[in-house]
Write the structure tokens for this entry.
Amino acid sequence: MTSNTVKADENRSKRRKEMENEASESPQLSSLERPDLALSESSQSLYKPEALEKVLNDMNKEINNLLSKYAHILSERAAMDASYVQELDGILKEARIIENHLKQKRESLRHRFTVIANTLQS
């Protein structure tokens, strides 16, 4: 068991040494020798203030357009919701009227049945 752990430690240290050797052998470019992508001509055109302003203005217009569409949709939905509320209020009032009418009919029938029952008993 201890021989396995010793071998594993040896393998790790060998790998570290190999990686260090490879790193020292590969030529590394200094920061001055590296090509700077941000300074290339194609990317410089993206960083011009005029181009950025145009892109920002276009994005601003598009965002405002989307927001106005969203606000319009919300106002339409709010109006629709208000009409639904009014319709439900009307249905509720009608249901209450029908309920009161049915209660009156029930009382009227109850009164008639008591009159009929009293007449039959006498």
Summary: The mean pLDDT is 81. The longest helix spans residues 49-121. Residues 42 and 107 are 91 Å apart (CA to CA).
